[in-house]
Design a protein that fits this description.
This protein has 398 residues and is an alpha+beta fold. The protein has six helices and 14 strands. Helix 1 runs antiparallel to helix 4.
């Protein structure tokens, strides 16, 4: 390689000297300054039987190229045939290309920026970490059965009103505080009830509060408070007993554990799941109720011991509040509550299916299975209890 490079350098020097003496020798020299190419004439001169007049420079260039062809063929990039197929430079462009430039006689004046003499005041607004939302509904249901209906039955009318309010705090760093208030009251009438003209079929006042310290992206160390009671008396058809009332019972649950933020299926399924290994459950009933002959059933019905008006349990609990938007029309809201003191077990699963008929009209199906082994065992259902209704009415979210 060094020999070839030295030979090429010598030929270049020779070519430059010859070019200064005679311009006719410039033609063979260009082949030393372009990418290495296999020229037919080089091989032809070496194999020719007659001596051609190529000049001293031409013979030196041919000899140098032949050495490269034989010793380093890998350096050859082109052949003379490929160059001929590529064509030559165009010679039909004789006229020079002239650019057409239009000069503007006068530049349009630019608007001047207004001069402000008074100093500018920078207003920084404090970010709001609170979010508020809610929804309300008023549902109706009517069932008419004539007196001579062959299968029997009973006409009845009912209405259910519900209101949910939420105020949530999240500073986007570590702390969050969620507050949720649920109000629900439903009334119904039935012809067979000779004792009560109207009685409640749905009655709830429930508050859920959670204070959380962020542990990871979706997990929070959480203290949860759950309190619920009802608006009015709980009655049964043709029965003078009062089965429940405002603050009787009053349930208060305090749990310490972890809260998980659910955002699944492209945020179509959202909500929270709370796991509390340590939970305190308190149930209270007014003492005055025990002096009434109509309410002597209270202790056994709510797991309260005789001559007491409260129940205190320590155990573990799990709660979940989920909302799944199945599509633009159907939404499923689910609430799960479970508590165990390792002596008794209480479980609730509320399911609300909302079918959006129009902007303000919604059909609702409510399913509520419940398990509580603190109550008296039923002969057919055991410790299970069920509640269900369907209705159609107005709804509004804000």
């Amino acid at each position: 390689m060094r020999k070839i490079a030295f030979c090429l350098a010598a030929l270049m020097a020779l070519g430059v000297q010859a070019a200064e003496e005679n311009d006719t020798v410039k033609a063979p020299m260009y082949r030393l300054f372009v990418p290495l190419t296999f020229y037919h004439s080089v091989a032809g001169h070496q194999l020719s039987l007659t001596e051609e007049e190529a000049g001293e420079v031409g013979k030196a260039v041919d000899k140098a190229l032949m050495d490269i062809y034989l010793k380093r063929p890998d350096l050859i990039q082109n052949t003379e045939t490929q160059m001929e197929e590529g064509g030559t430079l165009r010679s039909d462009l004789d006229e020079p290309i002239v650019q057409k430039v239009e000069l503007v006689e006068q530049v349009e004046p630019q608007p001047e920026a207004p001069v402000i003499d008074e100093p500018m005041q920078l207003v920084v607004t404090k970010p709001s970490f609170w979010t508020f939302k809610g929804d309300g509904s008023l549902q109706f249901m009517q069932n008419f059965v004539s007196g001579n209906w062959y299968k029997g039955g009973e006409s009845n009318y009912s209405a259910v009103g519900a209101l949910t309010l939420e105020a949530n705090y999240d500073n986007k760093q570590h702390w969050k505080w969620d507050n949720k208030l649920e109000l629900k009251l439903g009334m119904q009438t039935s012809r067979s009830d000779k004792v009560h003209k109207v009685k409640s079929n749905e009655d709830l006042i429930r508050y859920t509060g959670k204070v959380g310290l962020q542990a990871s992206k979706r997990w929070y160390y959480t203290l949860q408070v759950l309190a619920y009671t009802q608006f009015t008396h709980g009655l049964k058809a043709n029965d003078t007993k009062v089965y429940s009332a405002f603050m009787s019972p009053l349930n208060l649950n305090v749990g310490l554990g972890m809260d998980y933020k659910v955002e699944w299926m492209n945020k179509k399924l959202t909500g929270t799941v709370n796991l509390a290994p340590v939970a305190l459950n308190y149930r209270y009933v007014k003492r005055s109720w025990f002096d009434d002959e109509q309410t002597q059933w209270f202790p056994s019905r709510y797991g309260i011991e005789e001559n007491k008006h409260f129940l205190l349990d320590i155990g573990s609990q799990v709660t979940a509040s989920l909302e799944w938007k199945l599509n633009d029309v159907v939404t499923w809201k689910s609430r799960i509550y479970g508590f165990t003191s390792y002596k008794r077990f209480e479980f609730e699963w509320e399911n609300t299916f909302n079918l959006k008929v129009s902007r303000f009209i919604t059909a609702t199906i409510f399913l509520f299975p419940r398990f509580d082994d603190a109550n008296k065992r039923d002969d057919s259902l055991g410790y299970w209890q069920f509640k269900e209704y369907s209705s159609l009415g107005f709804s509004y979210s804000f």
